[in-house]
Amino acid sequence: MKIGIVTGIPGVGKTTVLSKVKEILEEKKINNRIVNYGDYMLMTAMKLGYVNNRDEMRKLPVEKQKQLQIEAAKGIANEAKEGGDGLLFIDTHAVIRTPSGYLPGLPKYVIEEINPRVIFLLEADPKVILDRQRRDTSRSRTDYSDEKIIFETINFARYAAMASAVLVGATVKIIINVEGDPSVAANEIINSML
Fold it and tell me: Whose CB has fewer CB within 10 Å in the chain, the N or C terminal residue?
């Protein structure tokens, strides 16, 4: 499968846009799979007793987060190998804001295992992201609840995505998630992969 990684700060709308990607690809009868990197990490973290929910993972010691990243990368790479022809999209983060600083979400040991064709940076205005976070009461994102932090994280994500792309020869593409119409971003992602 051709692999695309879709990254973005919590609240930018990755899950919504990727749901639209899936809907469009299904209509076109294109084999596809969408996986969430955090789901793979969370399964392992819960099994090991590290966390009770997804939002606690960002607060784990960096060494434990690295261990979870490695296990997730191996699982996703295996899925891609078994998936046949088509497109595989990974919903994840280019960086994770931790108490000890920014942790690359796609370090060498992850990016080389997954070997994507494109790394997408899904972005929106920080004010829009804050508004989306406030509307989503199912998640706790207080560590991203300031415009300055969101802006800083977006910049770190850009640097990290380019550094990761260099390791595997992938391209990096910024996609703006237009408020109210996820199909705009979804179509741009699909067109970049076909």
Answer: C
Closest C-alpha among 185, 3, 21, 165 to residue 94 = 165
From CA 165, how far away is CA 163, in angstroms rounded? 6
pTM score, whole prediction: 0.87
**Phi and psi at residue 36, in whole multiples of 5°?**
-110, 115
Superfamily assignment of 2-193 in CATH? P-loop containing nucleotide triphosphate hydrolases (3.40.50.300)
**Residues 146 and 93 sit within 8 Å (Cβ to Cβ):** no
**Token duo for residue 119:** 């790394």
| Tokens 């051709």, residue located | 2
- What does the domain layout of the chain look like in residue ranges? 2-193
Q: pLDDT tens across 12-53, in order?
A: 999 999 999 999 999 999 999 999 998 988 988 998 899 998
Express each pLDDT in 173-187 by its tens digit: 999 999 889 999 999
Burial class (CB in 10 A: 0-12, 13-18, 19+), 148: exposed
pLDDT one-digit tens code per residue, 118-170: 999 999 999 998 887 777 767 665 566 788 999 999 999 999 999 999 999 99
- The closest alpha carbon to 165, from 117, 132, 129, belongs to 117
